[in-house]
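hey so u asked for the seq, here:
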Amino acid sequence: MIASKEEELLETLRSVVDPEIGLNIIELGLVRNLDMDAEKDSALITMILTTPFCPYGPQIIEQVRLVGNSVMPGGVTVEIGTELWDPSMMEEGAGGDWGLF
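ran it, structure tokens below
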């Protein structure tokens, strides 16, 4: 079965790791929304950071843009959402190494 572009994009974004925490942005629940534009083969990615002043924020955002562009020929735009991150946003089982769940 061929994965949808959205599934392919999400899977590719797993390669973007928060260097401070050591988990990828999908496991952490940092990607909050994907708005796919099939006509333009582009996407708008809304994401948050683990803290508002994350020292790795600019690096993570740039990695998301680069990785996203490798899947979406029309390009991706990355927006930072206003939600505050908390561990409950993590994928089930992802916090096990932290002893959170």
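The chain has one domain: 5-83. The helical segments are 5-13, 57-71.
lmk if thats what u needed
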